[in-house]
Amino acid sequence: MCSNYSPEHVTYTWDCLQRLKSGSRAVFTQPPLPFKCPGAPQKIVYLTADRLRQQGILKDCSLNYYVHAPVIFGVPFFARELVKIAARYGIKVHYQHNLVAVDGSMKTATFEKVSEQNKGERITVPFDMLHVSPPQSPPDEIKSSPLVNAAGWVEVNQNSMQHVRYPNVFSLGDVNSTPNSKTAAAVRKQAPVVVDNILHMMGKRAVEGGYDGYASCPLTTAFGKDILAEFIYGGKVTPTLPLNPAKEHWVGWWIKVTGLPLMYWNYMLKGYVWFPKHNTAFKGDVA
Questions:
Q1: What is the pLDDT of residue 85?
Q2: In terms of Cα–Cα distance, which of 241, 174, 163, 161 is closest to 208?
Q3: Within a domain: 287
Q4: Whether 107 and 184 share a structural domain
Q5: Which residues are CB-contacts of 45 (< 8 A; sequence separation ≥ 6)?
Q6: Which of 2, 16, 37, 61 is catalytic?
Q7: Is the predicted pLDDT of residue 267 greater than 50, yes or no?
Q8: What is the C-alpha to C-alpha distance for residues 92 and 97, in angstroms, rounded to an integer?
Q9: Which residue has the higher pLDDT, 126 or 34?
Q10: Residue 67 banded pLDDT, cuts 50, 70, 90
Q11: Is 217 a catalytic residue?
Q12: CB neighbours of 147 closer than 8 A, spacing ≥ 6?
């Protein structure tokens, strides 16, 4: 049993993957929303399948992906392509299943069906490798604060990032209530809006809406291949590059393994944001 969501044990996923052999049964899970980056739970499914393909044993192995949602991905444009990729690998996708128990000694995982027709029904499946994407939520400090809605998220306007009840409060990132994917790409687009609106308030000007729900999920579909899924509110596809956004490209892989880490570690985490309106770069701690 392994999980890429655990910093302490992420490398154990690779150990488990390397031990798979002909006849192995690999099981993967996707939890109920909310969770960070809807593409993350399925990337390991495709990478595992591609590894087994390279070894020539994919057809002799069983790969099953249990998804809580009724679809493989929330944006239909990309979901249509991802279903084809799963079928290409022979991955069996089981929709509306939620992991509720694991028996490590027996190597079995128990799932509860969540569809209206079979709600509450449980099945138990055996595994040789189980990759778990754990349930996620805002931190307790956030959920217990007066800033949140009934679901525990900081309640903000989805365009201005300003709190709907406390106008001197803004929120961005994984803890707010915006109905978009919780990704670093989303924060990159939210940060300039927040800083710009704080400057507006300081200058006695009206707060503006500027965030359109942009998120980006680099969907790794094989070693060396990637679908760069970019979209805004409403599932509207907004590709940055002049490439077919529904197809796998090596360029997307290069961006994911080279470009994005450079941007993330060297710029985003250090607080640098870019203001297209003002043609100016600001550092977060100054703002």
A1: 97
A2: 161
A3: no
A4: no
A5: 28, 63, 65, 86, 91, 131
A6: 37
A7: yes
A8: 13
A9: 126
A10: very high
A11: yes
A12: 154, 155, 163, 166, 169, 171
Candidate list 2, 16, 61, 217, residue with the active-site label: 217
**What is the structure's pLDDT at 40?**
83
Q: Does 108 share its domain with 171?
A: no
Residue 31's CATH number: 3.50.50.60
Give the range of the structural domain holding residue 108, as residue numbers without chain letter.
10-131
Instruction: Tell me how far the alpha carbon of residue 206 is from its chain's centroid.
Output: 33
For the four alpha carbons of 36, 268, 194 and 287, in that order, the dihedral sign comes to positive
Establish if 183 belongs to a structural domain.
yes
Number of domains in the chain: 2
If you write DSSP's letter for every residue of 87-152 in order, what string do you get?
HHHTPEEEESEEEEEEETTTTEEEEEE-STTTTT-EEEEE-SEEE--------HHHHTSTTB-TTS
In a domain, residue 58? The reply is yes
Could you tell me the pLDDT band of residue 277, with boundaries at 50, 70 and 90? low
Quick one: 243 and 193 in the same domain?
yes
Residues 6+ apart with CB under 8 A from 229: 39, 73, 75, 78, 216, 217, 218, 219, 237, 245
Residue 80 and residue 195 in one domain: no
61 in active site: no
Helix (H, G, I), strand (E, B) or coil at 68: coil
Tokens 């690999």 locate to 26
For residue 237, being part of any structural domain is answered with yes
CA distances 274 to 120, 192, 280, Å, are: 49, 7, 6
| Peptide bond just before 135 cis, omega within 30 deg | no
